[in-house]
Amino acid sequence: MTQSAPLLLAADYRKFMRQKRRLLDAATRQHCASLASRFLPKLFSVLPNNANIAFYLDSFGEMPTEPLAKFCQRYGHQGFLPITRHGEPLRFAPIYQPLAKTPLRRHHLGMAEPTTHKIDARRMHAIICPAVAIDKTGLRLGMGGGYYDRTFAHAPNCLKIAWCYDFQLVDSLPRQAWDKSMDIIITERRFIRIN
Q1: Is residue 154 within 8 Å of 121, Cβ to Cβ?
Q2: 87 annotated to bind ligand
Q3: What is the distance, to the nearest Å, from the Cα of residue 127 to the centroid of all Cα atoms in its chain?
Q4: 147 among the known binding-site residues?
Q5: CA nearest to 158, candidates 44, 41, 47
Q6: Does residue 143 have a known ligand-binding role?
Q7: Is 139 annotated among the ligand-binding residues?
Q8: CA 151/CA 129 separation, integer angstroms
């Protein structure tokens, strides 16, 4: 299922996987996202109609998220993007369709985030997040800021979905007390239901 690797420190995984992501050209990234989008209809069984679905805008070599915006538009779900505040859970702002109509600003961490009104994470039915690495138990390693772990602690009932490349799946990751596991992993090769 996953690539075999010795158990590394979180910093080692971050360095290795971020380098590997950066080696992907734009065409490969888009192709992977297109392949992964084939699995999105599997979410019908776990999402209500007109669901609030949060996702991110890819900025650091992550798998592109444009298919997520198109999925929301096609099936009547409302898409949301995260807004960060240091040390706090993420809040979310609705996107406009097409996505290019959503007013954005560049955050000091480098990603684009919306400038519209903010909504509490507990109003999300699903939060689709990036991963630097993820293991077979759904344990996700992020960029290290703790934003998603704080958010999932604040909104424990939302569906937690990792959207990542298949090579980011590893056998095991080091666990911290605050880590929250994903419910679903979607890659270009598979759809994995953890819980």
Answers
A1: yes
A2: no
A3: 7
A4: yes
A5: 47
A6: yes
A7: no
A8: 11
62 is in an annotated binding site: yes
**Alpha carbons 48 and 173: distance in angstroms, whole number:** 32
What are the chain's domains? Answer: 11-193 (3.40.50.10420)
How long is the chain?
195
Instruction: Flag whether 141 is marked binding.
Output: yes
For the stretch 147-176, pLDDT in tens is 999 999 999 999 999 999 999 999 888 887
pLDDT category at 109 given cuts 50, 70, 90 is low
pTM of the model: 0.88
Question: Comparing 98-102, 116-120, 165-169, which segment has the lowest mean pLDDT?
Answer: 98-102
Residue 24 has pLDDT above 70, yes or no: yes
**Is 105 labeled as ligand-binding?**
no
Asked whether residue 146 is marked as a ligand-binding residue, the answer is yes
Does the annotation list 110 as a binding residue?
no
